[in-house]
Amino acid sequence: MAQVNGKTDTSVDGCTIGAALERLGFDRARVACELNGEIVPRAEYDERALDEHDALEVVRFVGGG
Amino acid sequence: MGEGAQMGPLEQRIGRMARERLAKARIGIAGAGGLGSNIAMMLARSGVGHLVIADFDTVDESNLNRQHYAREHVGASKVDALSQQIHAVDPRVAMQAFRLRVTPQNARELFGGCDIVCEAFDDAQAKATLVEQLLSLTPGPIVVSGNGMAGIGPASEIVTRRLGSRLYVCGDGESDVDAGEVLYAPRVMLCAAQQALVAVRIVLGEE
Fold first, then answer.
1. Which of B78, B136, B139, B147 could be cross-linked to B171 through a Cys-Cys bond (beta carbons 3.0 to 4.6 Å apart)?
2. C-alpha B115: how far from its chain's center?
3. Could you tell me the residue range of the domain that residue B94 belongs to?
4. Euclidean distance between CA atoms B47 and A21, whole angstroms
């Protein structure tokens, strides 16, 4: 079972990162994703499928600075 | 440090070892608005020797409620106004100030040589893009991002989180100017202070 932001989430197993983001309600233009501690370039979101050993960290950015 | 064996007031306060480490550090600041201007001043006061700052904008009167500028700076380029203020505090700080928009195309050239880069943009998409860009550089800088400091929520909501080996994210992660929340100096400065602090901690080997 893949981990998303530290929590087990079976709903994203087999999804690409892009599909997982959509399922979880993230806007892909406003996030940065780390897979197993490595940054994933946005261009690869639709290529890489999540498996049960993966840990995905999604940082959702908000406006203001 | 250009002052021989003499211990200056900063060295006396923080110690020669800490001062030497900080003086050698090269820290980038992407954006010189509410976060970036305050981060820059704090890093300069802390003894950081090299600052690389980029922002395309000029100071507007509406910035004065939270950004480190005064009435006399209105109309001036932010990076110029900031460089002037930093040198008024400590003329030894080596400043590389770029009046331009940071883009995916120039991010490496601007910040690739930095030990640490503080992301201090205001736009959420621009934040996401720059963080991704900087973390994709190998070797590349440690990235300290400011994320969520709008409104007047409690200070304790603003925290520093470490994600992976090269990313720290400071802020509440939730409050959003795009959802209509406004920016107040205390909370912007709390977030800026956490970014500056984590940068100093990294330089001094505490992270």
1. B147
2. 13
3. 9-203
4. 41
The ipTM, to two decimals, is 0.93
A28 domain residue, yes or no:
yes
User: H helices of A1-65, where?
Assistant: 17-23
Please answer yes or no on whether A63 and B123 come within 8 Å at the CB atom. yes
R_g of chain A, CA atoms, integer Å: 11
- The share of chain B scoring above pLDDT 70, in percent, equals 97
pLDDT per position as a tens digit, A14-57: 999 999 999 999 999 999 999 999 999 999 999 989 999 999 99
Averaged over B158-174, what is the pLDDT?
96
Chain center to CA of A53: 13
Identify the CATH number of the domain in which residue A38 sits: 3.10.20.30
Look at residue A24 and tell me if it is in a domain: yes
**Antiparallel, parallel or unpaired: β A7-8 and A31-35:** unpaired
